[in-house]
Every structure is written in C-alpha cells, then in structure tokens.
Known about the structure:
Blueprint: E1 4-7, H1 11-22, E2 27-30, H2 34-43, E3 59-62, H3 65-69, E4 74-77, H4 81-91, E5 100-103, H5 116-123, E6 133-137, H6 142-145, E7 151-157, H7 160-170, E8 175-179, H8 183-205, H9 210-230, H10 241-252, H11 257-266, H12 271-276, H13 283-298, H14 303-313, H15 318-326
Parallel strand pairs: 1-2, 1-4, 2-3, 4-5, 5-6, 7-8
Antiparallel strand pairs: 6-7
Amino acid sequence: MKKISILGAGSFGTAMAVVLGTKGFPVTIWAREDDVVSGINKNHQNPQYLTNVRLPEGVIASGSIEEALHGAEMILFATPSHALRDVANQAKPFITGFEVIVTVSKGIEKDSLMTPTQILVDALDGAILEDQIGVLTGPSHAEEVGQFKPTTVVASAYSKRAARIIQETFMTPRFRVYLNHDIIGAEIGGALKNIMAIASGIVDGAELGDNAKAALMTRGLHEMKRMGTALGASQDTFSGLTGMGDLIVTCTSEHSRNRYVGYNIGKGKTLDEIISGMNMVAEGVKTTQSVCQWAERNNIEMPITSAVHKVLFDKMNPKDAVNELMTRNAKDEIMI
C-alpha cells in the first residue's frame, strides 16, 4: 500500500494517523518535538496530543521533513493554517513524484487572505500541479475521530480525480467521506465557523441564553454564506457538512478550542490569559483578523465577525458587543 506522510503531529494529524494506519497504510508523521517523535516510535503514543489513543504499528515518526517524505505518494498537511506556508516551503525541495497533497488546516492567511489550498498552490508552485491539491474538512473533532466515533467529512480538490483519491484513501466504516467540488465554499465554511464558535462560547460564558446562541449560529451561517458567495462559492455548500455541520459541532462541543476561548472571555478572562494556558491552537483568533481584513477591503458587512474582533482585540465588553449587534438598524432576514 502507498506510504502517506503527515506533516504535523498535533491532535488532528494524530487522529488521521489512526485512521490511515488502521486501514493498513504505512504512515510517517513529521513532528517538531523530539519527545513526540520518541513517544510515537517507542510507545505508539503521542505524549502531547490524544494521549489516550494508541497508534497502529504501521505509524512511525520523524523529526526530519526530508525523511518523513521519502518514498511517500501522498502528503497530508496537518499544521495550523498560520504555519502552513512555512512548512510547505520547508517541504518543497523534497516534493517529487507525489500523487496528491491534501490539507486539513482551517483558516485564512493574514494579509494574503488565502485559504489553505490556495496557500499550498502558491507555496508549492513548480513542485506539484494545482490539480493534485485538495482539502479534507467537516465536523470532525480529533478526540472523537481517534476513538473511532462515527464522523462524516468532505473531500474537495481542484480536480475531480484528486478529490476521488482523497475520498478513497480516507474512507472507513467510521470515517465517511463525501465529495463536494466547491472547494472555496468548503474552505470558507471551515474557516469562518471557528469565528462563530468563539462568539458562541462568549454567549455561554456570559450566560446570555439559548435564544442568543440560536440567533448567533443562524446569523453566523448567513455571514459564512455572504463571504463564500462573494468569492464564488455555492450557497448549497453552506447547508452541508462544511457549513452547517461544522458550525453546529464547533459552536456546541466541549472539544472545541475556539468555543473554549470564547467561553473564558465570556467569564471575564483576557485573550492573553487564555492563550497562554492552551497547548493547542484556536484557529478562529487569527481567522477573525483575516476575515475583518477581507470585509474591509471588499466593503462587505460582517457584523458578528466585527463584534468578535472588537471583543478579542479592542477589549470591548462582550455584553456591550451583544448590545451593539441587537440595536443595529432593522432589516429583512432574507433579501428577495
């Protein structure tokens, strides 16, 4: 079976190693940390992430990107979106003869405002064709994937062939993969739901009620559609797994890092206090900055995203932000 390299040994990279290793694929995980490499190779366990999960025998780790990529046919980038370009640049000299490159990152790069697959297309230009790049995304907390709890996601790529290869490679009886050829819609949904999860956590932490949370998720989905369709996505995508599905799980789950950030802000903690106590990345924090950049450049109204930005970076009181949202000018819910 083809060897697969996973670049990134965080929680989701580890969960994907479980999925692929259980299918019998030889998997090499690249990790920055020596203790992670040692823990995987000696104990078949990641000592930092998903520590209660045992990795299959066919999964090994390396601290060298060159070594991790040697002999592989597929690369899975499992890094935070803000680190994706740097890791892609490090990997580029060793990328030759690969069938497909797939990312599971969710976010939008600051300043360039590129999605993860767009970052890979840009960074790996000359090393691999755009048609060989794709994304795997959807409502899929690593903690549950690693424990074989039923999960459904979406494979999308710049070619139907690459999307089908991703689907066939990752599909298992417990990890169901659908195809959706709207790659920009799939990635915008995956990025913006993290902003809405921060907002949802704030609502819970500040004890603003279920009515507020329902309104937030519904209007948050509208903002996801607004940005996505402006970039050429299909509205239907946002009714699916990478839109509504990912929004629901990230806004409500105890596993959600973004909801955790929002919850603690709602309880009165500062962003710096919260981030300093986390060993994992909450993608929505940086994505909020990027989406606000995009909205300003394109003169498009994104009121919930703007409110989250004010709370995170301008130290606005969450209840004042809610009041600002609630007292905006009256509008139609759906423009006809």
